[in-house]
Write a structure and sequence with these properties.
Blueprint: H1 7-14, E1 19-20, H2 44-53, E2 66-69, E3 72-75, E4 77-83, H3 87-101, E5 106-112, H4 114-122, E6 128-129, H5 143-146, H6 165-174, H7 180-197, E7 205-206, E8 216-217, E9 243-244
Parallel strand pairs: 4-5, 4-6
Antiparallel strand pairs: 1-7, 2-3, 8-9
Helix pairs in contact: 6-7
Length: about 250
């Protein structure tokens, strides 16, 4: 799936370039994110070859690839659910459907409101979904989204049903490991597992512009986030106090 999607096009065409391609489940600027893992390339021909290796091809000339499963020809078709009131998401899923259709995969777009989206996630009644995450602050804990015990549990955040023994072992180890270097190695191995198995197709992390007048003082820009505002030097601001510098 990932090979069939041009993530750079998505970023440039639908986000006006305000995004960065990512490969895994952690924030891109986090130490848990392994920068050495490179994105899978956009290579629809290779994607087609992999599908054919797995027995997916158009056997009847109807434009949709299919495969014999338990004695029956099954078309490669699925429903892609998304939040219908987000215009950016709508544009992205329309592109996804078009790109996959070129490989003979039939994608039915299913735009729903927030209540129906939440119900589908809780009930694990989704075939595929396009959505975004809001990640918390470090230390990262993958348990909620990725631990195997949640794969079949209604209402769990592991609504894609991901299950991997080694990933579970890493998550368990992170609960007790305190050495920073060892934790980073565990995070990076976990990242590599997700990258190889591709339970999600990670598209991008959005970039954000922060604009404010230079006479507005004590704006909370942490000193360690030079990527946001070069020269930021407020280490421990008082978030309840912001003032405007007297001018003229």
């Amino acid at each position: 799936m990932t090979l069939a999607l041009d993530r750079e096009r998505i970023i440039n065409q639908y986000l006006n370039g305000m995004g960065i391609e990512i490969t895994g489940p952690f924030a891109h600027d986090s130490a848990a994110y392994d920068q050495s893992i490179k994105p899978w390339p956009y290579d629809p021909q290779f994607a087609r070859e992999l599908l054919e290796e797995e027995g997916w091809y158009d056997s009847d000339g109807d434009g949709v690839i299919d495969k014999e499963i338990e004695g029956k020809r099954v078309p490669f078709a699925f429903s892609l659910t998304y939040f219908v009131k987000n215009p950016t998401t709508k544009s992205i899923v329309e592109y996804v459907a078009t790109a996959l259709n070129e490989l003979g995969i039939l994608v039915k777009l299913n735009g729903v409101d927030l209540a129906d989206l939440s119900a589908a996630i809780d009930g694990k009644s989704l075939e595929a979904i396009c959505m975004g995450w809001g990640l918390g602050t470090p230390p990262e804990n993958p348990r909620q989204l990725w631990y195997s015990s949640g794969a079949k549990e209604p209402g769990s955040s592991n609504f894609i049903g991901f299950s991997n023994k080694e990933a579970d072992q890493i998550i368990d180890a992170l609960d007790f490991e305190e050495d920073p270097e060892t934790r980073i190695k565990l995070y990076h191995r976990f990242h590599a597992i997700i990258h190889e198995e591709q339970p999600y197709t990670f598209l991008y992390a959005p970039k954000t512009l922060y604009l404010y007048r230079n006479y507005l003082k004590n704006v909370f820009i942490p000193a360690d986030r030079q990527d946001l505002v070069p020269g930021a030097d407020i280490a421990q601001p008082d978030g309840s106090v912001i003032w405007i510098e007297k001018r003229g």
